[in-house]
Design a protein that fits this description.
Blueprint: H1 2-6, H2 8-19, H3 27-32, E1 41-43, H4 52-62, E2 77-79, H5 80-86, H6 96-108, H7 120-136, H8 140-149
Antiparallel strand pairs: 1-2
């Protein structure tokens, strides 16, 4: 309730996203992303109910990356157009040094990867990591931070 009093907009978004999500871990949903209008949204959690305290931590933490348009500012409200741009990066072959950075993130993130399962988030956020490593020079700790803040499975950490 204190969070709702401090930021009613965030509380309202949380309520909407936690009650009206369209995200699932299915292969069919992953495949459907390619044909979604780029202006549509991938919303809500896929595995567990969202928790307000964690949601606020995530949105506030992701704010430090707001200058990079490809990093969604809300892990539970992702523009389909961003997902469509990041998924192909998942298949990019990294240089040896870049791969070491990616491997560090895989070993050190909370989920031991970009998500808890190899669903659409795995491909989108795995692709995002490769994009950030290649295009923005991110190091492993930065990828871990983005992945941990972007965990969209629901629940707390």
């Amino acid at each position: 309730m204190a969070i709702a009093a401090e930021d009613p907009g965030l509380a309202s978004r949380f309520k909407d996203l936690s009650e009206n999500g369209n995200s699932t871990c299915s292969a069919k949903f992953t495949e459907s992303i390619a044909t979604m209008p780029s202006t549509s949204r991938i919303k809500g959690s896929c595995c567990s109910p969202m928790e307000m305290k964690r949601y606020v931590e995530q949105v506030n933490g992701l704010a430090r990356y707001r200058d990079i348009a490809m990093i969604p500012s809300d892990p539970y409200d992702i523009p389909a157009g961003v997902a469509q741009k990041m998924m192909p990066y998942y298949d990019v072959k990294l240089t040896s040094t870049e791969q070491q950075t990616y491997d560090y993130a895989m070993a050190n993130s909370e989920e031991k990867g970009p998500c808890c399962c190899q669903c659409w988030r795995w491909k989108v956020y795995g692709g995002l990591a490769k994009y950030l490593i290649r295009e923005h020079g991110f190091i492993g700790k930065q990828i871990v931070d983005v992945w941990d803040l972007s965990d969209g499975c629901g629940g707390g950490m």
